[in-house]
């Protein structure tokens, strides 16, 4: 089968399309014919070798795929041949024609969700769910700022927060991104590339501040975020690409807090809670992954460049 292989850590050019042996499912495992694979920023950090998780070389990147169950190992009961599924992590990697997964890593894909959308579920929606509920303790009537709302995690968070009954503010770096953020449920959208946009956010709360901030780029924004919080407010750090200086008194004055997490570090009970929440939202149409771009699998390197550089507009999906 064809698969992207990483044989050494490095830039996007180390992603090579190769012919490798097809994996076969052992007990409790299933083989999925991949119709689409989702590209996440942490795939790029891992490929560079600079991340907390360093896969053993060579490896096939990707945790998020969607496709059809092709073959089953012994004892598998949760899925059957021919089921439409999405993966929440895999054993063999998602950037490939076939992916091997434990049965617990496979989840049924509702008919109304396409394979391309299905490849944008686990990391983006799992992260948004964990940020909004276990970390932020979001409640109806609160105001949330989704800081970086035009990408995979941000769109997921906007849809969830709107469905729960929060007042939702989102930011994007382009006019097209602002339109997307509003279309997906934000009451107000702000351009984070415009200087002084934080003043517009404070004005939109009549000076009170927001209750919650879901932060996609903490190394740039955390210091200013603390000044946007209402009393008792909370920032959930979802993404950060470096260090940042904050004024601790901004926290003291507001009795505010900052919390962070990494999705790969959560436990099995938390994973089960996430899937219970996502399944109902995907089924009832509340959660609708947005695919901004589809690229052939062979162009994985381009996808890794674009996800870090371009203005986001939903997810990038690789098509084997
Ligand atoms: P993505 O699809 O590439 O989207 C990136 C988002 O960040 C876009 O909305 C982008 O907006 C926004 N952004 C760019 N510059 C910004 C700025 N100065 N201030 C605020 N937002 C800005 O990535 P993603 O999948 O949504 O992930 C977002 C971040 O969360 C990444 O850093 C990722 O590594 C991290 N993450 C963490 C976890 C975890 O477990 N903690 C899980 C998933 C993702 P424009 O492009 O419109 O400017």
Count of distinct structural domains:
2
Helix count, DSSP H or I runs of 4 or more residues: 10
CATH homology-level superfamily of the largest domain = Medium-chain alcohol dehydrogenases, catalytic domain
Termini Cα gap: 10 Å
Mean pLDDT: 97
Question: What does the radius of gyration come to?
Answer: 20 Å
CATH architecture tag of the largest domain: Alpha-Beta Complex
The tally of strands reads 15
Question: What portion of residues belong to β-strands?
Answer: 25-35%
H and E order:
EEEHEEEEHHEHEHEHEHEHEHEHE
The major β-sheet equals: 7 strands, mixed
Give a description of the structure:
This protein is α/β, with parallel strands linked by helices. It folds into 2 domains: 2-121 and 289-319, Medium-chain alcohol dehydrogenases, catalytic domain (Quinone Oxidoreductase, Chain A, domain 1, Alpha-Beta Complex), CATH 3.90.180; 123-264, 3-Layer(aba) Sandwich (Rossmann fold), CATH 3.40.50.720. Helices cover 31% and strands 27% of the residues. The protein has 10 helices and 15 strands. The protein has helices at residues 41-48, 115-118, 122-135, 152-164, 175-183, 197-204, 218-226, 248-254, 268-284, 300-309, and strands spanning 2-6, 15-19, 29-39, 65-72, 84-87, 98-102, 106-108, 143-147, 167-172, 188-191, 210-215, 229-237, 257-260, 291-296, 315-319. The strands form 3 sheets. Strands 3, 4, 5, 6, 7, 14 and 15 form a 7-stranded mixed sheet that branches. α3 crosses α4 and α3 (122-135) packs across α9 (268-284). The longest helix has 17 residues, at 268-284. 47% of the residues are buried. The mean pLDDT is 97. It binds NADP nicotinamide-adenine-dinucleotide phosphate (NAP). NADP nicotinamide-adenine-dinucleotide phosphate binds at residues 40-42, 123-124, 127, 147-154, 171-174, 177, 192, 216-217, 220-221, 238-239, 261-263, 307, 311-312.
